[in-house]
Design brief:
Number of domains: 3
Number of helices: 14
Strand content: 5-15%
Structural class: alpha+beta
Order of helices and strands: HHEEHHHHEHEEHEEHHEEHEEHHH
Strand order of the largest sheet: 8-9-7-11-10
Number of strands: 11
Largest sheet: 5 strands, antiparallel
Distance between the termini: 191 Å
Length: 476
């Protein structure tokens, strides 16, 4: 009953071992993954093993030793890292310069190139030459950068030296100015103390009274040297003013000397008015003009007497009452003229703000004008009336021009003295709104200062016309 046993098959040990190692993944040898089925003898003889699907276990990361804390004197905590983590935390080396980094890269490239055994020698030599050339280029660039930095530093040093020199000069100038300012301040303080000292002495010596203060504040009347004038006209009515002036120039021959003309101006009706300072100069002028008697008429102009204005005189006083009061109640003033003729003539009257009073304009002799304007006040009946100089200038209240009164004005529309518009001042919107006035006369004459009323005493055009009007008045 014994069966025939099959002899063992000769198997190469190397092949058997190779077959046994064929499955590359390692099988888990744990008891739970081991099969409980017994393998047959044939399987053992053939070296075959039943391969069942097994779970491949990835090696777990070995846990390193626990981190230990080392306490130092400064109580700093230092942790020891796992040697396996060094690859993750390793940072690339730092170099002092780019050239050092390039040198390190060249060395590393050559070392790695030497480790490559299968690379051809020609390729190695070419790569080595290329790496050496790159290193040379980087070296040249580094040297150029260093040279440029040195040049820039040299330039900056030169600029800083120049700036330092300029700053030193400026500091010196500032110190000089400070010294001068200090000296001037000391001198100013000395002058101020001296002025205060003399001011105290002056105040102690003089005792001002109310009357003296009033006399000092009051403006002195306008006194202007009158001119002795002649009026020259042409006998030919067809000649113009320019032609008459040309005849006068040829007759007088002022370039030859011996004659002085103070003023010359044109008037209406082709008249030329020439003014001289003295009677002698006027006689010389008339002598020169005798050679042109056939064509020119020469007439002397008699200067007018000056005028005064009596302010706020009661209206109940008639003209005769006013003249009689001046002569009888002010004998101390009028009698000082001696044997000179006393001329007292009322020219016109002006309205005052008080409806019970009026302003009286009078023409008087030059010596009476001087006495009355110096005194400043006269007695009229029961009043003490203020006396002032009256300008001979006439201004039209309709067109606001000079040289003629309202009754002789050719304009029909009234001009505003505030803005120069064709309306009354009481209807002026600018005046009601408080806007600055505009003088129409100064605006027409293209003056710089026009911010004043047309009746203002400070008007430049009025001052010019007033000077012309006073040139024919005899103040002395």
């Amino acid at each position: 009953m014994f069966g025939i046993r099959t002899p063992d098959r000769k198997v190469d040990r190397a092949a058997a071992s190779h077959r046994d190692r064929a499955p590359s993944p390692r099988t888990d040898s744990s008891p739970e993954n081991t099969s409980n089925v017994r393998r047959s003898i044939g399987d053992w003889e053939q070296g075959r093993v039943e391969v069942k699907p097994t779970r491949i276990r990835t090696p777990e990361k070995a846990k390193g030793p626990a981190k230990r804390i080392i306490f130092t004197k400064d109580t700093k905590v230092v942790t020891r890292k796992d040697p396996t983590d060094l690859t993750d935390s390793t940072s690339p080396p730092k170099y002092a310069t780019k050239l050092a980094e390039a040198r390190a890269c060249v060395t590393k490239a050559k070392v790695n190139l030497g480790l490559s055994r299968n690379t051809k020698t020609e390729i190695k030599e070419a790569v080595t030459q290329a790496v050496d050339r790159l290193y040379q280029i980087i070296k040249e660039l580094e040297s150029k950068e260093e040279k440029a930095a040195q040049e820039k530093m040299t330039e900056g040093t030169g600029i800083r030296k120049e700036q330092t020199k300029e700053c030193a000069e400026l500091v010196g100038k500032i110190e000089n100015h400070a010294r001068l300012i200090k000296e001037n301040s000391e001198k100013m303080q000395e002058l101020q103390s001296t002025l205060e000292k003399y001011g105290k002495q002056e105040r102690q010596q003089q005792q001002y009274t109310y009357a003296r203060a009033v006399m000092q504040d009051r403006k002195s009347p306008t006194q202007q040297k009158s001119l002795l004038s002649v009026v020259i006209t042409s006998k030919d009515e067809m000649e113009t003013g320019e032609e008459v002036l040309e005849r006068i120039r040829k007759a007088v021959k002022a370039k030859e000397g011996g004659i002085v003309v103070e003023n010359i101006r044109k008037a209406k009706d082709r008249k030329i008015i020439i003014g001289c300072k003295t009677e002698e100069e006027r006689k010389q002028l008339k002598e020169r003009l005798k050679c042109a008697e056939k064509h020119l008429n020469v007439q002397e102009v008699k200067n007018k007497d000056p005028m005064i204005i009596l302010l706020n005189v009661f209206k109940y006083n008639s003209d005769e009452d006013i003249i009689a009061a001046l002569k009888n109640q002010n004998k101390g003033v009028l009698s000082e003229g001696g044997d000179k003729e006393e001329k007292l003539e009322i020219v016109y009257k002006k309205k005052a703000r008080n409806p019970l009073t009026q302003h009286v304009v009078m023409r008087v002799n030059p010596h009476i004008w001087k006495k009355l304007t110096d005194v400043g006040r006269v007695q009229i009946d029961l009043q003490r009336v203020r006396v002032e100089d009256q300008s001979p200038l006439v201004q039209c209240s309709l067109c606001l021009a000079y040289g003629h009164p309202k009754r002789l004005c050719k304009d029909t529309a009234e001009k505003c003295s505030h803005c120069g518009g064709a309306h009354k001042k009481s209807e002026c919107e600018d005046w009601k709104a408080g806007i600055e006035p505009t003088c129409c006369n100064c605006k027409l004459a293209k003056m710089d200062k026009i911010d004043h009323n047309a009746f203002s005493q400070e008007c430049p055009v009025r001052e010019r016309w007033d000077s012309i009007a006073r040139s024919s008045i005899s103040y002395c």
